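Record Polysaccharide biosynthesis/export family protein, 353 aa.
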Amino acid sequence: MLLGGCSTGVQFAGSGSGASGDAPSTEMITEQLIEQERRLAAEQGRQDLSPLIVPNPAPYTIGRGDVLSIVVWDHPELAAGGMTAATAAADSGTAAPNAVPPGFAVDHLGRIQFPLVGLLTVDGLTEEQARAMLTKRLARYIANPSVTLRVQSYRSKRVYIDGEVKAPGLQAINDIPMTLVEALNRAGGMLPSADQSRIVVERGPARYMINLRDLVQKGVNPGSVLLAHGDVVRVHSRDESKVFVSGEVVTPRALTMHNGRLTLNEALGESGGVSPLSGDARQIYVVRKTPERTRVFQLDARVSGALAMAESFELRPKDVVYVAASPLANWNRHLSLLFPGALTSAVGVTTRP
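=>
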């Protein structure tokens, strides 16, 4: 009677064991449950990315701290006294390493000091707008001025790239639109350990989770995700999204998800499958911790269509896949605990000539 009571294997409340209390109930994995979980995951993953999606980025606007290169043709005396010398030093390589780049620096009020016209507010203007305004001001003193104005050094706007990239750090925003793809490329690209399904863009108090794989599937070009000054991009590691497989499998192990995706069938396959000697194919469990409660799913691999359901059942980070032992394996183990060496002796007697 004692041995018979020990041979039932692992049981959860609601799985036929009659257990009660705080134990989580078991939910059988069916096609209906898989569809319900798919809808739930879609609702949880849905967020408004419209503040990041800009199909046609606007031209770069001059900001505070930028350095402008301004040339008024046929009037070298308007080179701000020393600008020509500084440019020559920079070209010859004799400039100090920490020297300010040659040109007209935009001050903290968004202004530059230019000969004849004095203070000129250029903050928030494009190069074309600043050139037109300067040309109009100079026309009071010079007949038909020909002006060339461009940004010499981009220092006003930056984003920060962190995580699983080759060269994390600050990236300056220049006249090339700073899209998410551009920022990742400037950081040397993502490492093999990067999880492309968990790229976070932090903009002030807002936090956006970007799944590159899902964006492509939805027809959204990742190149249309435009970053802004002060954004922080974090590329998470795949090691942070592991699934743990234990119990009666050939090789218990921790598995990393493939860019945010891993099915129950893939997890069992990468662990060698259910042990043919001790595993119970009727009792394959998935234990999932959610903020509200702990959920336990059970798959009976002997029923028709179980393989297809295991392939459709999507696992989530930190899930635990557990395969229970068969009643015979439990019986052998309990017998070995109660009568150490008895089973081995019995086998030896039966096989003795």
